[in-house]
Amino acid sequence: MNREKCILFCRISSIGQQEGFSLEAQERIGNEYALRKNFHLIKTWKVTESAWTDAVRKQFNEMLEFVCKSGIKHILLYNADRLSRNVQDFANIEQLIKKYDLNIHFTSSNRIINKKSSPFEKFAWLMETGMSVTYSDNISERVKLSFVEKLKKGQFYSKAPIGYKNNQITHQIELDSQMADVVKTVFSTFLTGKYSVRTLYTELKNIGIRSARGKIISAKNLYNILNNPIYCGYIIYNDVRYNLSHTKIISEEAFNSANSLFKRRHYRRLKHTFSYSHLIRCGTCKGLLVGSKAKKKYIYYACSKHIKHDGVRYYNEKELEKILLKVIEENEIKLKDYEVILQTYFDIAKAEENPKLGKKEESEKRLKILEDKLQKLLDAYLERIIDKNMYVTKKAQLETEIASFRGNSRDASNYNPNWEQDSKEFFELCVSMKTTYLNGNSQKKAELLRKISSNFYVNGEDVDYQREGAFQFGINDPSCVNWLGSRDSNPDSMIQSHESCRWTTPQWISELS
To answer: I need a labelling partner for 421 at 20 to 30 A (CA). Which of 99, 118, 362, 384 fits?
Structure first.
């Protein structure tokens, strides 16, 4: 007499379920059930996986596929929640029961679900599935609430990322000095703008950067590092920002700069590097002028839209540099005007910069006091010196005041302690830029032009652009308002009104350095 074939599916959600509900216990009960029913047990699945995410239910789906292909009619499980903890799976299993005439055996209760089951039996199965869903939802909700409570206290709730380690006593994360230096190297190298994540991986591999275990840091881990705000002191959880109390590895400005690099357009890899790539556009259609090489030595730039405008199909690089020389001449300062312009600028800028310095120092001092008060308030709450209501009220007041002073500190942070040196270097650049341009190679010329603007529109012999950084105010361009306003440039006539100066904001000077 041929015995009917069956399979046994044993599942736990995590290693933590091993106690009292182990895979071995489920297997033993399933074997005893098959023996009582005189089934031939041909295969057993022992699985540790969640019933929630499709991506991790690989073995569950393999089991269903095996059953459908082999023609087996009996599936043994310990109870309903071993099969499913979501309603979608319940509906899918019910369809399979009808299509393949399956029998689902729950070994703990000796119940069988098949297409002949009564409405009451199916309802009881659905209720068990619903109870499993509710149980899982409650666990998920409690875990999320515990995460939020930790984040509100400035604590990280999970395994420490690269660069940190978990402190089992304080239940917080702290610096891993060796890997923190690696994280700093990753950011500083990436922020040079010379690398993608893939080329950064190759560069770090070549210079010998390794993890704490001596392994090469993968490109995936590099991407995770560069996109994780925890390194600058905060985390985003459920679209809410939480500031954490652990030691920062990088500044928030550095993290934002790295993050913005990912948003740049990804260009195809070129066989040759062209100095004016992504700098010059067609003045007619605004398309980029793309470089190409002919006879291994001649470089040409043509509109990327492959359109011939006004009889101009392409520009020779040398011809293009002659056209762009106009830009240099428009932004050059004549040597005879240099001393007057520099001294006038210093006189006005000093009057503006000194108050900024005092305001910045005052804001930073007050901010430090408020942050210390906030920490003491948290300590008092944790030590049960004050109750929760008082803690919440005082915390809200302090955070409001801190946010206000941080805004004031940012407003005052425009102060640049090196503004005099930066300013002098900038004006010296403006005096010598034509000589530098004429004597430099194409790469040096492109670097100089990029300080003036990021986009130049060339149409025949004409070039149009919008100044950026320090150059946005114009220097010798007749079409712009003269930055001296109504001021006389004669060195003997230095007494002028403050309002007549159009160029009185020194902080932008540092953008060029």
So the answer is: 362
Tokens describing residue 329: 């001449």
What contacts 466, CB < 8 A, 6 or more positions away? Answer: 453, 455, 472
pTM: 0.40
User: Are residues 44 and 82 in contact, defined by beta-carbon separation less than 8 angstroms?
Assistant: no
A 10 A CB-CB count for 149 gives 11
435 and 442 in contact (C-beta within 8 Å)? no
Q: What is the pLDDT of residues 405-416, one digit of tens each?
A: 666 555 444 555
Structure tokens at 341: 């312009």
Cβ contact 3:39 at 8 Å: yes
Distance CA 113, CA 106 (A): 8
User: What is the C-alpha to C-alpha distance for residues 357 and 506, in angstroms, rounded to an integer?
Assistant: 13
Query: Tell me, what amino acid is at 473?
Result: F
Rounded to 5°, angle at Cα 397 from 396 and 399:
65
Mode of pairing for the β-strands spanning 240-243 and 280-282: unpaired
Sign of CA dihedral 436, 441, 444, 446: positive
Is the pLDDT confidence value at 510 over 50? Answer: no
Say what the pLDDT of residue 51 is. 54
Query: Does residue 504 carry a pLDDT above 60?
Result: no
Nearest CA to 463 out of 327, 330, 332 is that of 327
- The answer to whether residue 511 scores a pLDDT higher than 90 is no
Decide: 102 and 96 in contact? Cβ < 8 Å: yes
Q: What is the pLDDT of residues 392-402, one digit of tens each?
A: 888 888 888 87
Q: What is the DSSP letter of 102?
A: -
Q: How is residue 296 written in tokens?
A: 């291994």
- C-alpha–C-alpha distance, residues 14 and 26, integer Å: 15
CA dist., res. 98 & res. 78, Å (int): 21
Cα–Cα–Cα angle for 84, 90, 92, rounded to 5 degrees: 115
Q: What is the DSSP track for 459-470?
A: ETTEEEE---GG
Strand blocks (E) in 119-187:
164-167, 172-175
CB 352 within 8 A of CB 508: no
CB 105 within 8 A of CB 74: yes
Coil, helix or strand at residue 92: helix
Q: How confident is the model at residue 289 (pLDDT cuts 50, 70, 90)?
A: confident
Per DSSP bridges, beta strands 103-106 and 234-237 are unpaired
Question: How many C-beta neighbours within 10 Å does residue 169 have?
Answer: 6
